[in-house]
TrEMBL record, chains A, B:
One of its GO terms (molecular function) is metal ion binding. It comes from Phycisphaera mikurensis (strain NBRC 102666 / KCTC 22515 / FYK2301M01). InterPro entries: Metalloenz_LuxS/M16 (IPR011249), MPP/UQCRC_Complex (IPR050361), Pept_M16_N (IPR011765), Peptidase_M16_C (IPR007863). This is Peptidase M16 family protein. Residues 166-336 form the Peptidase M16 C-terminal domain. PANTHER family: HYPOTHETICAL ZINC PROTEASE, METALLOPROTEASE.
Length: 428, 428
């Protein structure tokens, strides 16, 4: 399907992708109000906005605003990420026209009243505290904190000190400074008439502005990758690691994703085969690629019992390195590529996935990409291109940050024992 | 879309729902090999099959079988529930013909070799142990264990004793006894030619049989509902409760779902408004309905900090009772119904959701239901019917089982203090 594009007088990029046969319409509004833009001593204001924005907007109090959207069956959510803040919603296409005003008001005209601030801060503090019960998530957060330079290393739920210091006025100032039409993207996919949508977006965002132009952010010194342990009474040892890779807008990003698909793209992927099937080391093991316009990374996770943890780390790192050292087989390559292509085409059947992709692509690539373009990019990956990429991008021994969280620390990853021997030695 | 149906010579019910414009085809094969059918002293064999079935099938060893499916981009998973065992898969429709044989082999012709059993049992034991790091999930499991009669009260991951006693021969016997064409359903939705699919299913399941006819299960005495506490060093107090409701195939089940939608169907739902917005008591609170052919239940969950836990329980139970005591407003009713209808129509855009619904409906209703039929059922709910249902089905004070898991026990739910007072008293 072609993507229709429009830029409003206020500078908001608006995209619409009609999807044949869709009954739903999904909306993604992405604004540059991510965690990197928080004041250093007010960390927590970005995720808190996910709650504070829902406390009344556009002349309707919290209750009336929630009712206006529920009356139209609009399922929605909003929250911050490192660089952005995204409001996403999905509804029946027939309700899009009427829903758009109260939906956009959430971001463009929130009340942010003093009286509503206290409960929002309490809830955000609880959200931070609740992570104590989520050791896997904490391991991944610690990994970012240890690997990335400031301010990309920030905790996604904020800090206790930042939340304690935060006031309603701080939250209003943060939103006014960063949430404006310039640098933002509004995307819709599904049952939508692009021209009508553009006209409505133009009208509904006419009075929207930010206090200043979209801000960049200063990146601090990059930490030296190392191995870290977080002592925790958790049952499992949670192993998380990552290293730097090409940014998501680099032409080689698709090759990095193909490499990850060889490791972790299906049940015959190398990690699944070596860690889970051959050695029975752990139930959950995966690798992934994550990237934005300025940087990218490969990460991996495994959760296992303490007696199996060292072998799991050894095998995991061995497989990550072996990918760059030994050729990817012809059949292995084809499986990885078929998997990538299938997942991509299937994601194109979800209006929500398409809307979110459209706004993400503008943030990362500076323009939307059609599903067909992305499928062609995958189809253009050849064994030779992947081989060259893997040769040129092997992570050095000093490149990986490793975080373990659990009842005991691990040694640096070593050469794993052969599969049969280790499996026999593991406790039943 | 019409649903096409076929019954194979061996007695397998096969359903196909072509979906216009879909590129993917999703498959759900549901067999009556759920946890209730496990031998009392071999609990864990049903969930273990989720791993053991993936260790070679139809003449292909584990590796070759995984590769055969990955080569066609088939994303799949399988696992047990209380009554059933489900294999689900999604792929591009163009690959369905070729993928069907290795996919069905997983269930109809698994190798279940002795040599593969040990690692599978190790992984299943790890899966059970890993729940120690998931207090919310443990609270919900404890709730079922406390509320339901045997064997519906069983732990979904099995027991340590059951897994320790389990042998490969036990697993083979379990599968041979319960996984046959009679009582099973194979459903496909999306890009599919029904007649070609029926012919393939007929051919591929011709040699499939179970050792015996589908078994029922004896239900033990129903526990007396009560309040239970599980002492745990978790950060939050996890509150879970449930009471009995009409079975899913009862004509009033749609009314029970409508009642739950008033509580928890959107951001203006009563639980969200009273517990989260007005009092800021907790981040996560919801209610739901779950049912099968023989019984149903309403459940609710809230996770909060220890100082807020008693008030959260009080408000939660108060709201659950108030639903039956005070009329549902006209606008409140309409919001709940629009939400139900929207979610239903939107679920119809996912081939995976449709395939799973088709096989579930046969298990519960004895026949598949079209999306249109389900939408009509929702449209036929009136305020008066809901009112009558709520009047007749108020849970008595002795009906609720309550489980709390966390650092301290709670009192029985009492009348909550007014919102303003309690909020002021809560620690910031």
């Amino acid at each position: 399907m072609p993507i229709h594009a429009h830029t409003t007088a206020s500078g908001l990029i608006v995209l619409a992708e009609p999807m044949a046969g869709a009954a739903s319409a999904a909306v993604s509004l992405r604004v540059p109000a991510g965690e990197v833009h928080q004041p250093e001593d007010r960390q927590g204001v970005a995720p808190l906005m996910g709650e504070f924005l829902c406390r009344g907007a556009g002349g309707l109090d919290a209750r009336a605003h929630a009712e206006a959207l529920d009356r139209l069956g609009v399922r929605r959510g909003c929250g911050s990420s490192s660089r952005d803040f995204e409001l996403d919603a999905v509804m029946l296409g027939v309700n899009l026209d009427e829903a758009l005003a109260p939906l956009l008001d959430t971001v463009t005209a929130p009340h942010l009243d003093d009286a509503q601030f206290g409960p929002c801060r309490d809830l955000q503090t609880q959200s931070l505290d609740a992570l104590e019960d989520e050791p896997q998530e904490r391991a991944m957060i610690e990994l970012s904190a240890r690997h990335l330079p400031a301010p990309l290393d920030r905790h996604p739920e904020g800090t206790r000190a930042g939340l304690a210091a935060l006031t309603a006025a701080d939250a209003r100032a943060f939103w006014a400074a960063h949430a404006g039409p310039a640098g933002s993207v509004l995307a819709v996919a599904g049952a939508v008439d692009p021209e009508a949508f553009f006209a409505a977006a133009e009208r509904l965002t006419a009075g929207w502005s930010a206090a200043s132009a979209p801000a960049g952010y200063e990146v601090g010194p990059t930490p030296v990758p190392a191995q870290h342990h977080v002592q925790d009474p958790s049952e499992q040892v949670h192993i998380a690691l990552r290293w730097d890779a090409v940014p998501a807008n680099h032409p080689d990003a698709v090759l990095q994703k193909a490499a990850v698909a060889v490791l972790s793209g299906g049940m015959s992927g190398r990690l699944f085969t070596e860690v889970r099937e051959k050695r029975g080391l752990c139930y959950s093991v995966y690798a992934g690629y994550g990237g934005h316009a300025d940087r990218g990374g490969v990460y991996a996770y495994a959760g296992t019992t303490a007696p199996r943890a060292q072998e799991t780390l050894d095998v995991l790192v061995h497989e990550l390195r072996r990918l760059h050292a030994e050729p990817v087989g012809g059949d292995e390559f084809r499986r990885a590529m078929v998997g990538m292509k299938s997942r991509l085409v299937m994601s194109g059947e979800s209006t929500s996935a398409r809307a979110s992709s459209l706004s993400f692509d503008v943030a990362v690539h500076g323009r939307p990409r059609t599903l067909a373009e992305r499928v062609e990019e995958v189809a253009a990956v050849t064994p030779g291109r992947l081989r060259d990429f893997l040769d040129a991008n092997a992570p050095g021994p000093e490149a990986m940050t490793i975080v373990t969280l659990g009842p005991r620390a691990l040694d640096a990853p070593g050469e794993p024992a052969p599969a049969g021997v280790a499996a026999a030695a593991a406790p039943a």
